[in-house]
Amino acid sequence: MLEFRHLRTLIALRDTGSLVEAAERVHLTQSALSHQLKDLEERIGSPLFHRKTRPVQFTRAGQRVLTLAEQVLPQIRLAERDLSRLAGSEQGRLHMAIECHSCFQWLMPTIDQFRDHWPEVEVDIPSGQSFDPLPLLSSEQLDLVITADPQPLTGIHYAPLFRYEGLLAVARQHKLAGRDWVEPPDLRDETLITYPVEQSRLDVFSHFLIPAGIAPREIRTAELTIMMMQLVASERGVSALPNWALTEYLERGYVRALSLGEHGLWRTLYAAVREEQLTQPWMEDFLRTARETSFSVLSGIRPTGDSGFH
Q1: Cellular location of this protein (predicted)?
Q2: Is 112 in the same domain as 137?
Q3: Whole-number mean pLDDT of the chain?
Q4: Among candidate residues 57, 85, 113, the one where a domain is terminated
Q5: Predicted model pTM
Q6: 49-50 and 57-58: which strand pairing?
Q7: Which CATH number covers residue 205?
């Protein structure tokens, strides 16, 4: 009666909260996903969730199937890992670089889980790498790079992890705090607080201010997100960060968050790897673990709905 695809679909629906985003995550059209859910409901003789609710609210029957999915799917993943290791495919090296200061929130639990299941794979984040790490993939100095800015490099595949929105954090009493979004000219007289990295690597510059020919009045840097938020909350500047990095500060009411532009600035985060490593079982498992962990620990992200590009 129940199939693995049904369990994966229910988990996707729970994690995303909507039929549209769940369909993207499991690589189905919305109509195909709706048909699959209707078929499952007919099989079990009960609705799985309440229609026209956002986020999705599951019925008792839906909750029971979700419980089953939470029990069964991790066991399948564990068996797949064990079978790959028994086949002798466990040896490998995973040296990575991260072009994202706030990525450690989801990356570290990903690495911890991966190490538990693939102890023979050497995992490291080498220090002293340049802040243009993508070319180091081709020379095999690195094996994976987390980036939102793919470069057309021969033999490099960009596996999409998730989509995120860049938001502008302002003090609750800031003159812009009552707005839903800002336009580039709104930042002309502001102090913009950023991480201490090149402007070309920050979405607020490369995809918002620079295309509009706008520069903030002043730029101030801080190493840690919490330091940036303290400065913002005390009205010493504004800061643009990924939506997931602002979640806890928004929930506590420290700051307000505004979209960058009326339709928001949405970007895709990728894992760049060499094409020949894509079929390695441990690499496939790392990418899958990264996606699953991201959706379990981050708020506001979306599925990508594609399989990557070269």
Answers
A1: Cytoplasm
A2: yes
A3: 88
A4: 85
A5: 0.73
A6: antiparallel
A7: 3.40.190.290
